[in-house]
UniProtKB/TrEMBL annotation:
<dbReference type="InterPro" id="IPR053927">
    <property type="entry name" value="FlgK_helical"/>
</dbReference>
<protein>
    <recommendedName>
        <fullName>Flagellar hook-associated protein 1</fullName>
    </recommendedName>
</protein>
<dbReference type="Pfam" id="PF06429">
    <property type="entry name" value="Flg_bbr_C"/>
</dbReference>
<feature type="domain" description="Flagellar basal-body/hook protein C-terminal">
    <location>
        <begin position="589"/>
        <end position="627"/>
    </location>
</feature>
<feature type="domain" description="Flagellar hook-associated protein 1 D2-like">
    <location>
        <begin position="338"/>
        <end position="409"/>
    </location>
</feature>
<feature type="domain" description="Flagellar basal body rod protein N-terminal">
    <location>
        <begin position="8"/>
        <end position="34"/>
    </location>
</feature>
<dbReference type="GO" id="GO:0005576">
    <property type="term" value="C:extracellular region"/>
</dbReference>
<dbReference type="GO" id="GO:0009424">
    <property type="term" value="C:bacterial-type flagellum hook"/>
</dbReference>
<dbReference type="GO" id="GO:0005198">
    <property type="term" value="F:structural molecule activity"/>
</dbReference>
<comment type="similarity">
    <text>Belongs to the flagella basal body rod proteins family.</text>
</comment>
<dbReference type="GO" id="GO:0009425">
    <property type="term" value="C:bacterial-type flagellum basal body"/>
</dbReference>
<keyword id="KW-0964">Secreted</keyword>
<keyword id="KW-0966">Cell projection</keyword>
<dbReference type="InterPro" id="IPR001444">
    <property type="entry name" value="Flag_bb_rod_N"/>
</dbReference>
<dbReference type="InterPro" id="IPR002371">
    <property type="entry name" value="FlgK"/>
</dbReference>
<dbReference type="InterPro" id="IPR010930">
    <property type="entry name" value="Flg_bb/hook_C_dom"/>
</dbReference>
<keyword id="KW-0282">Flagellum</keyword>
Amino acid sequence: MSDLLSLGASGVRAYQTALDIVGENIANANVPGYARRNAVVTENPSAGGGFPLVRQTAAGSGVNVSGVARAYDAFLTGDARTASGDYARAQTRQYWLSEIQSFLNTDTQGLSGRLTSFYNAAQDIATDPTSLSARDAFLSAAGEVAAQFRGLAQSFDATRAGIKQDVDQTVDRINDLTSALSTLNGTIRRTAGGTSASASLEDERDRLLNELSSLTKIDVTTRADGTVDVRLDNSNGPMLLDQMGPKLLGAQEANGKIRLTLDPFGNSGTIPVPGSGVLAGLSDAYTQNSNSTAAIDTLAQQFVTSVNAAHRQGVDLNGVGGGDLFAASSLAATPSRTNTGQATLDMQVTDESLVFAGGYELWYDGGTSQWTLSRTDGSATVTGSGTLDLDGIHLELGGAPKGGDWFQIEGVSGAAGMRVLIENGAEVAAAAPWAADISAGNQGTGTVSVRSNPAAATIPAPVPTSFTVRMGAGSTYEIIDTADTGVPPTVLASGAYVPGAWIPVNGFDVQLSGTIAEGDSFVVAPTAAGMADNANMLRMVDTRLGNPGFEGRFSREVTRVATNLNDTKALASATLAVRDKALEARDAASGVNLDEEAADLIRFQQAYQASAKIIAAAREIFQTILDIR
């Protein structure tokens, strides 16, 4: 009779536990990371313990719940982690490439449009070389080109800082996750396996691993006790977490790329970023941003070099030789992140030759309301309140600074340092430095052309200010001083006439072409002030040409970024589909199916009721025996 009661009681206890587990599954059906639990109901052995004189009390006494099984498929879980990491990489890269493309526009307000406006303004001067309004418009267009280059440099720099900030935050989160996993490893080791408590801990472990795999590619080894070891990238990668604890991860910038370090405070060296996860997407975007920055800097340098070379070959309206139109380097003031005031700073370089190469520091003393500007090595310092002058640098200071506000002033080059050096339109060197005229008495039909050539130095000192090229007997030419009235004049240089060949003189070359008769002459003299000559401006317009030209080179970089972005969008769409399928397969194996839980609920309820009826039957039998008189 007691065995019958024990049989029923064991069933009631076992199926009550099973019902509790079903209830737990139903309650957590929509909780992310929750894996289905199953009650392991086993039959108590019906045989004795192997000792004739020892009775096995559990024998023949029904069933019991020997443990709680957690639904888990290691392969499907690992596949889901990989797919999630691939999608996270593509999604992150897509976001930052979209940011880069947003300021690489090619409309009239972008760099391509500004370059077009610059060359159109140059063409306007070539049409009317003495027009001051055309010259002023040209300088305005030049300033817009420089401002656009600087704006792009600032946008790239802001993007770089944003990506690096996300990298640092991602690395910090990875370190938090590995630290939490290490703590969880210790808790799992101390918790009995096959229990609801251990299943909950393993759920939390997998949740942390899933988040970690979305941040960077990992390889997970699960030990028999449920604890995990984690490596970066693959099974041969560096250890990120073992049974001794986590390794601290760090990130740094090197040669336009993001590199990782394990144990940043030791001597672990750098390692490449693994190939999936948010960190990989950030690394891809950082590399693209660095490449585009370098491309724009190169474009700026080539543009400045080309235009300056042309401008230096001409003379302005005052008859003065042209200098550089653009500078490709400047000074920039970077405020400290700890600044709390609203200071304004206007900086001008009055003499570049005096600027200290090591840079400067500027800080504000709230107690004295004074600014201090000093070289970074402390070798020179000035203090003042409104304006400061040091080493060819003039600062106008205003706004509402706060004590402790600080700025770093250092040289910048490339696109970031581009600026226009000329402020007066009359100083635009539109004319060629030399002009050539055909003498009225020439018998032939020959023509003459002149080009600048600073290396040409045929005539010994003293060099005349004006030259006459005269054809001699036997197809030869002679170069004489135009002011030489001697008979015959002194021949400064001579040679055989080759039609179309360039003849080096002093600071320029002369080209004679066509049919030239003996005695024909051509006068070459410096371009006079106010001369309506456009030869040098046409030379500057020619710098636009190329294969491709400057606008085309910029458009090519924009196209490169756009192509990369479109490829990334396609990849993101594909990896999203793969991720969803992988998660669906994982959840099918470990997720809660409410229909199955409903069936189990009915099954365990019926088993529970059957066990209760056994107890009721035993009670009736026992009561019947007691009622026998």
